[in-house]
């Protein structure tokens, strides 16, 4: 009889009084961090299910976010396609694995443009299918309805702008 994978426990959320905005904000940050880790675990589990062991979840997300674009390594970060600090390492690995093609820019020979190879496009499609399945399951369960996911996304974009302004203010 095949053994099922152990259930992952999600930490119980501590209720935060509505008058404690700082507490609610800190709880939101903790949830956001856990969501990112869970996303990486979901991608990892999907790849294990498919027998795809050559990519890390971070590399798979980089492939997904690159999509049909052709950009420089620096643009990956500035456009929000990659969040880590080791973009050169991951790009080099993806080139070595045949998922990304790179070539020197004509205008600035120091810069390298990257784009997905056909293998990279196939991998991007696999990740896109995974996300589509998740979106469908969440939609059917009603999780995306209250509050509507569009409202949640609007709030996150506002927080993103606020944080970005704080960083610019420092420099």
TrEMBL record:
<dbReference type="GO" id="GO:0006950">
    <property type="term" value="P:response to stress"/>
</dbReference>
<keyword id="KW-0804">Transcription</keyword>
<feature type="domain" description="HTH marR-type">
    <location>
        <begin position="25"/>
        <end position="161"/>
    </location>
</feature>
<dbReference type="InterPro" id="IPR023187">
    <property type="entry name" value="Tscrpt_reg_MarR-type_CS"/>
</dbReference>
<dbReference type="InterPro" id="IPR036390">
    <property type="entry name" value="WH_DNA-bd_sf"/>
</dbReference>
<keyword id="KW-0805">Transcription regulation</keyword>
<dbReference type="Pfam" id="PF12802">
    <property type="entry name" value="MarR_2"/>
</dbReference>
<keyword id="KW-0238">DNA-binding</keyword>
<dbReference type="InterPro" id="IPR039422">
    <property type="entry name" value="MarR/SlyA-like"/>
</dbReference>
<dbReference type="InterPro" id="IPR000835">
    <property type="entry name" value="HTH_MarR-typ"/>
</dbReference>
<dbReference type="GO" id="GO:0003677">
    <property type="term" value="F:DNA binding"/>
</dbReference>
<dbReference type="InterPro" id="IPR036388">
    <property type="entry name" value="WH-like_DNA-bd_sf"/>
</dbReference>
<dbReference type="GO" id="GO:0003700">
    <property type="term" value="F:DNA-binding transcription factor activity"/>
</dbReference>
<protein>
    <submittedName>
        <fullName>DNA-binding transcriptional regulator, MarR family</fullName>
    </submittedName>
</protein>
């Amino acid at each position: 009889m095949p053994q099922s994978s152990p259930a992952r426990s999600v930490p119980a959320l501590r209720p935060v009084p509505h008058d404690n905005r700082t507490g609610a904000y800190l709880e939101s940050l903790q949830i956001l961090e856990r969501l990112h880790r869970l996303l990486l675990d979901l991608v990892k589990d999907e790849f294990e299910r498919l027998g795809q062991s050559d990519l890390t979840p971070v590399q798979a997300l980089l492939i997904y976010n690159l999509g049909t674009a052709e950009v420089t390594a620096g643009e990956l970060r500035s456009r929000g396609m990659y969040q880590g600090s080791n973009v050169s390492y991951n790009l080099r690995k993806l080139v070595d694995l045949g998922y990304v093609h790179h070539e020197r820019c004509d205008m600035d020979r120091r810069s390298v443009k990257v784009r997905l190879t056909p293998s990279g496009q196939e991998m991007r499609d696999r990740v896109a299918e995974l996300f589509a399945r998740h979106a469908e399951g969440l939609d059917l369960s009603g999780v995306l309805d209250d509050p509507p996911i569009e409202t949640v996304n609007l709030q996150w974009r506002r927080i993103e702008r606020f944080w970005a302004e704080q960083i610019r203010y420092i420099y």
